[in-house]
Write a sequence for this structure.
């Protein structure tokens, strides 16, 4: 059987649910991590009945042991695990100053530590199989920060550097690691937050999910260590 066991974090979020739907349509076997158990059940109810899925609600992605237990449960269910799509993250804007210190810690934890912990937990299984695909969701400010973006940009820069290091360390294991840098994703929350914005260039979550589905496929073995813009037209 082709390698198609994929773990998705933030599985019931706007991007995560699009990724899960796309991968399910391609016959992937899915491990879905989601903080909210009700949202996870609703997501699964919308998938094709034949989808093989392991639901793991409430996993603390900042805790390495919790991440490792999630990987062990995945291996118990499916034997191997071939891909990780990490969609967990957060966004806040705060100017540099005393009040911004808390945001600095929060965003580095939410955007970088979570990615580190789940990556560190899943890599031994991929190394053993000598195959793996890892995709993280970064952002353009990780390359160049704007005003009030110090904490957010630093956390996404850390995620990009983490991805590059994973790629460099795991080439001999045939494990790839890449980042997506989306533009503004067209979600109900973004439309509500920016009611007067021109949404023509906003990126549908499904389009990003399609790109991710390629990156976690066997065909994408030549792409690793990349930060790939997905900013729309």
């Amino acid at each position: 059987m082709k390698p198609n066991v994929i773990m998705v974090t933030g599985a019931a979020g706007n991007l995560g649910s699009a990724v899960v739907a796309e991968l399910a349509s391609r016959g992937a076997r899915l491990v879905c991590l989601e903080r909210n158990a009700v949202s996870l059940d609703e997501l699964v109810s919308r998938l094709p009945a034949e989808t093989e899925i392991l639901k793991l609600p409430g996993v603390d992605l900042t805790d390495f042991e919790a991440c490792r237990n999630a990987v062990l449960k995945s291996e118990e269910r499916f034997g191997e695990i071939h891909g990780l799509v990490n969609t967990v993250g957060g966004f806040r804007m705060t100017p540099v100053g005393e009040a911004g210190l808390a945001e600095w810690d929060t965003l580095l934890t939410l955007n970088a530590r979570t990615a580190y912990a789940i990556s560190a937990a899943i890599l031994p299984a991929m190394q053993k199989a000598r195959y793996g695909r890892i995709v993280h969701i970064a952002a353009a400010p990780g390359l160049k920060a704007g005003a009030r973006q110090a904490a957010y940009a630093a956390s996404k820069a850390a995620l990009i550097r983490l991805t590059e290091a994973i790629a460099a360390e795991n080439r001999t294991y045939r494990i790839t690691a890449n980042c997506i840098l989306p533009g503004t994703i067209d979600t109900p929350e973004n439309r509500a937050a920016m009611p007067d914005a021109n949404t023509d260039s906003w990126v549908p979550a499904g389009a990003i999910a399609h790109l991710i589905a390629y990156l976690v496929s066997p065909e994408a073995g030549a792409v690793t260590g990349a930060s790939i813009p997905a900013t729309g037209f």
